[in-house]
Design brief:
By secondary structure, this protein is α+β, with helices and mostly antiparallel strands. The chain has three helices and seven strands; from the N terminus they run αββββαβαββ. It has a domain at 11-105. 25% of the residues lie in helices and 22% in strands.
């Protein structure tokens, strides 16, 4: 029986990752840094355990991608795609690509804080949160952040 392998990243997404890498390599230098934060193009995950990777760039020569890795902690850095392709989790399952992840919609920073927003909304369904570029979560006016259901924002009882 042929061992399962990670399905390759589709050509159109791979081309976008490489294009981002070329742009970054062309414009980033110590004298004139012109940094552009690219959006996450691909989301990979371990279907049987921990591990999620959001990729924004790919060096085609080394097969090294840049992105956000969330294994035990969330951190930005380079990811060896060859290593991910050869990884086998429980039951021999390979790393998979999230087919429903919207490419070029979220920055890596938004992906980093996305789970925090989901957790906040799930714990308090009536609490409306807003994600800002400066990594702060704002509570909409008039909503209480107090866990006590008897308190309002002005401190009065209902």
């Amino acid at each position: 029986m042929k061992p399962m392998t990670m399905k390759p990243i589709p050509k159109i997404l791979k081309e976008r990752l490489i294009k981002n890498h070329i742009h970054h390599k062309k414009y980033w230098n110590d004298e004139h840094p012109e940094y552009k934060e690219f959006k996450a193009v691909v989301k990979l995950f371990n279907p049987t355990g921990i591990g999620t990777w959001y990729l924004s760039e790919l060096d085609p020569e080394t097969n090294q991608a840049f992105g956000l890795a969330h294994v035990h902690e969330k951190e930005l850095g380079y990811i060896d795609l060859n290593e991910l392709e050869n990884f086998r989790g429980q039951m021999g399952l390979p790393i998979e690509r999230d087919l429903y992840f919207p490419a070029n919609k979220k920055t890596l920073n938004e992906c980093k804080y996305n789970s925090l927003i989901k957790l906040t909304v799930l714990k308090r369904p009536k609490l409306i949160t807003k994600f800002q570029a400066d990594n702060k979560i704002q509570v909409s006016a008039g909503m209480s952040t107090n866990n006590n259901p008897e308190s309002k924002t002005n401190g009065e009882k209902q």
